[in-house]
Every structure is written in structure tokens, then in C-alpha cells.
Amino acid sequence: MHVNFLNNEQFLFLQQEKQTLTESLLTLSELKLAPELIETLKQAILQLDEFFLLVTVGEFNAGKSALINALLGARVLKEGVTPTTARVTLVRYGDNEEEQIINDGFAIYTYPLPLLQHLNIVDSPGTNAIIREHEILTNEYVPRSDLVLFVTSADRPMTESERQFLQKILAWGKKIILVVNKADILEADRSINEVRGFVLDAARKILSEEPELFMVSAKLGQKAAQTNEPEVRTHLWAVSGLAALENYITHSLDDKKRLELKLRSPLGVLTNVNSQALANNEAQKQDLQADSQLVALIESAINNYERELQAEISPRLAEVESVLQRFELRGQEFFDNTFKLSNIATLAKPEKVRSKFEHEVVSDISQEIDEKVHNLIDWLVDKDLHTWYQVASMIERRQASSEKVLPSGDENPHASKRAELISDVGQTIKNVLSSYDRQKEADEVHELVKDTISQTALFEAGALGIGALVATIITSRALDVTGIVAASTLAILGLFVIPYRRKLAKEQFKSKMDELRKSLMQTLKTTINVEFSGAIKRLRDHVAPYISYVHSEQDKVDSEALSLESIKQRAQSLQDQITKLLM
């Protein structure tokens, strides 16, 4: 595009569009798109700086080369009933008629035709031919066009394959002009109108608008160019329909219209490429869905496991604490029943009181606590084992389903990676479960807890530690029974001394029990919490590689979706601005 023809507002818009296209290209280049799509977008962007490009397309033997020859007024391009156009030929203005073959797929032809001073014309190989390379070349150049001349033949107008090709062109957002060639074979106006109506009806269904359509005869147009009689030339040129087509290209496509098509062209390509990227993104989301659901189930199972442990540990520890509470209650009752005037003889014998305390109060407290702790540990181990089996079952089901739908080869490397990770995780969990000895696990945890709580003051000397505590209280100066007996009167002993000593003993016992209970329960709670936290961490660590990868892929797909949606909105915004710019 020659910027000299642009006003300041149009020039600024062109720069804005180029920036948007370049930024979008960079974003799309980072995605797993076909390289040819990215190259197509690159070429469409570069085309912004080139002449207006009119590309002729159609099936082989539709007369595309003949049509261009007629417009040029000379037989410069090869024609034939077989697929003769083997390369893309760019026809542009030049002072001299000259052909330059760039490579097997591309050639440049210069010709001194005034029409070419405003645009370039591309003659493309025919589609729907045996030589598929020709069709590939044509498909490469359609996205670069600013205007497409879609040529069909009057003897077989708008075939099914042509309709499909027309839909492909439309997907690139191109302005399409329909040309029905070989109109000279239609003998009556009725036949011409029937073909015109048929082609228009078919095109409307695809284009969703009333297309421009020209009935032409390249054969008559070439005859017009060959005659030396001006009147005959003018008549043949008009009858051929090429006069109307030339007038449309020259006058209807004025500077303003060509500018509009030129600006919209790369945006149409961007929209097409971005739409394919969005479709890929949606496919990736669908592909990730099963894995994301599995991750959610695994995380939910582990979180539920953690919540259940946190919720149930306190009540189960409370069962242990209730043993201590009953023990304390028996101790208080023991002091009430033992510290009486009637038991003065027993009180004088501390060892006897201690033995009686151990028998009536201590009893089997150690076994009771051990039983409660053992039950808690069994529950903890069973809960852990149940969750491992639950997760293993989820993974096995996912493995079975993924093996049915996983594509072969490198079609979906992300799915292959996830399948590999879930297989590794599944095998690791199987190995853990196959070597899981429930009794051994329970015994090891029990020994750990037992060793830990044995370090508390309550169990320093086993259950007999309580008896030693009582003996200490009884033989202390606070309860010097010998001194009491040496007192003068039993009345004073019964009314004042023994109740006072009993109260003092109970207070000291309660104080010691509070301290011991707090120490024991805190030790138990800490040890059990460390154990269950470790169990949860082990499970999480085993599934972490798979979960981390799925989360990473999901974040990546979501981020790409946002970027692609932004490109879509920016492209549409530019399309809207073009409408306002050229009003």
C-alpha cells in the first residue's frame, strides 16, 4: 500500500493495525499451530505494504488464464483443457512485456496495461485437479489476496467441489467476485438467466449476501483484442461481458474501496488463524477435562481425609483424657475415704496407704490408656489405607479410559505426557499398597506413641509413678501422722488436723494431675498430628507430579484462551474502526 495516498488519520490507523497484527502474530507463533498457518498470517501482514492484489481462482478448465489473457488483450498465459497452469503467476505493471520465473511454483509477468497500475493480478493453478500440488499453491495465495475473482464455467457452473472451495475462501474473510466464464456457449438469454440464477442462489447460501456476478466470455474478449476494427472490437468487448468486469475493477473498486479491502484483508486472515487456535484451545480443554476431573477427585479425597482426621482425632483423644479424669476422680474419692479419724492407724503406715492407693486407684490405668491409644492408631492406619485404595481406584479407572482414546504417535504430546505420569503414579501407588503391612504400620506407630508418652512425668516409672506421688504426699511434713498422733487430744485431730491435711493432699494431687494430664494430652496430640500429617504428605507427594502437570497445563490453556479472546476482540474492533474510518 502506498502511504502517499493516505491521509493522516488513515496512516495512523495503518500503523495501529500493523502493531496489532504483529503482536497477534507473536502470540499465535508461541502456540502449537501448523507452521503454514503462521506463515500465511506473516504473508498477509506483509501484503499490507504491497499493491492491491486480485487473485483469480477456480477449478481447472474454468478458463482463468483465458480470462486474464482477455483482460490483458494478449495471449500471454498458457491455456488448455488440461491443468496447464503449474505455478502461481503474478501479473503486474511494467513498461515491457517480460516473464521472470522465480522457482517451480512462482513466476512474475510484467505487462504495460493501465489497469495494472492500480493492482496486481494472480493467476493460480486450478483446483480439483489430479495434480494436488497445484491446489496447494492456490490455497497458499488465497489468504494474501485483497479481492478474489472466483471463476466457474457455464458448462458446469458451481459444482459441489466449487462450493466447498468457496466456503474455504470465505473463511479467510475475503471479498469474492463471481465470474461465470464461457457464457458464449449459452445460446439464449433464458439459458444465461438460468445459469446466473443458479450460481447466485448457490452463492447466497454460502456468502449470506448478494454477491457481484459477471457472465463473461473470455473467448469473445480475446477476439475483440485481435480485431483491428474499432466498432467490432467495442461490440465484442461489450458482448463478452468483460467490459462490465473491467469497469467494476477500474471504477467501482475506487481508491476508497480498495483501501477498505486492503485493510480488512489481513484482519480476515488473523480472524481465521485465531479461530483455528481457539478451536485447538477448546479441544485441549476437552482433552484436559477428564484429567482435571480426576485431579479434583483426588484432591477432594485427600482433603476429606485430612478434614476427617482433624475432626475425629479430638473426640478420640478425649477418650484417653476421660481415663485420666476417672483416675483423678478415684484418687479424690480415695483421699476422702482414707483420710478419716477412723483410719488413723492406716495413715500411720505410708507404705500401706500407697499399696491401697495403687490397688484401688491406679489399678489398670496404664492398660486402659494403652488400649485407647491402640484403638486410635488402628483407626488412623485404616483411614490411611482406605484413602490410598480410594486414590488407586480412581487412577486405575482413568488409565483404562485414557488407553481407549489416547491418539497414537505425536498427535497429542500433552495427552501422552499425562498418560505417562498417571501410569507412573498408578504403578507407584500399587507398589506402596502391595508392600503395605497394616499390622506392622500400626505397631510402628503405636511404639512411636508409646515411646513418646513414656517420657512424660505420668509414665516415668510406669503406673507406679502415681503411687510414688502419693507416698511423697503422705510422708511429707504436711502430713506427718506421727506428729499428729503425738498431739494431745483426738478431738482436735478429728475436727481440724485431718480435714486440713486431706484438703491439702487433694489440692496437691489435683495440681499434679492437671499438670500430668496437660503434658500427656499435649504429647499425644502432637505425636498423632505429626503422624497423620506425615501420612497425608506421603500420599500427596506420590500424586504430586501428575497433579502438578495437570494444573500447569490447565493454567496454560486458560491463559492462552484469554490471549486468543483478546486477539479476537482487537481484530473485531479494528474491523469496526475501518467502517468508521471510511464513512
| Derived structural class | alpha/beta
Rg measurement, Å: 47 Å
Largest sheet: 8 strands, mixed
- Please mark out the parts with pLDDT under 50 across 5 or more consecutive residues, or reply none: 404-410, 457-464, 475-491
Q: What letter string, H or E per element, gives the SSE order?
A: HHEHEEEEHEHEHEHHHHHHHHHEHHH
Beta content = 5-15%
Integer count of domains: 2
Considering DSSP H and I runs of 4 or more, what fraction of the residues is helical? 55-70%
- Helix count? 18
Strand order, largest beta sheet: 3-4-2-5-1-6-7-8
| Principal-axes shape call | rod-shaped
Quantity of strands, as a count: 9
pLDDT average, as an integer?
79
Amino- and carboxy-terminal Cα gap:
20 Å
Descriptive overview:
The protein is an alpha/beta fold. It has 2 domains: 51-253, P-loop containing nucleotide triphosphate hydrolases (Rossmann fold), CATH 3.40.50; 283-558, no CATH class. It is 69% helix and 9% strand. It is built from 18 helices and 9 strands. The protein has an 8-stranded mixed sheet with strand order 3-4-2-5-1-6-7-8, sandwiched between helices. α2 (35-46) packs across α10 (255-338). The radius of gyration is 47 Å and the shape is rod-shaped. The two termini are 20 Å apart.
